[in-house]
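Hi everyone,

Forwarding the result from last night's run.
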Amino acid sequence: MAQNLTIVRDDQKNFRQLVILVLLYLIPASQALLPIDDPDIWWHLRTGQWIIEHHMVPTTDPFSAYGMGKPWVAYGWLFDILVYGLYTKFGLLGLVLFTVILSLIIALTLHHLVRRASLPFLIEIGITAVGLFCMKPVLTPRPWLFTILFFILELHILLIARRSGSPGLSASYPYSFLFGQISTSRLFMASPCSA
């Protein structure tokens, strides 16, 4: 009888934890499902289209009246190609799915990073929820989603290197290179709440 009671309590605890986890992951998913009100996404789509049509990255601004013909560095070109490809295949739904999926990957990666600290479950969830809540305003279809993801991944690499005593900075170089190609933000400080 006592063993059955323990099993029931464990099942209830597991169910409560599952409900809390679902609520945690609803934070980024719900934000990512909001209407796209960021006008820069159209610039990224048009740049991606231009790159695909011309088979090169533009070196001068071909779009704005003010910048027409002036030197321009399209350093987010890989992101531009990605979102243009999603848009041409799936329309606006592609942009929404991209944002939801990348936001959930960010949430999962952040949660995993916090979980490595071996904190009690509710504190782990609380810290992750605060981080996700602070990121809510930037969970839009922009290159900075990759910035956030790669920043968290680099933290993972550095923490692994620190625990193992090996120099882990060289392992983060590929992330830094890819991060520089996809994202327009070269530096992401973990303080989006201050924005």
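Residues 184-195 have pLDDT under 50 and may be disordered.

Cheers,
N.
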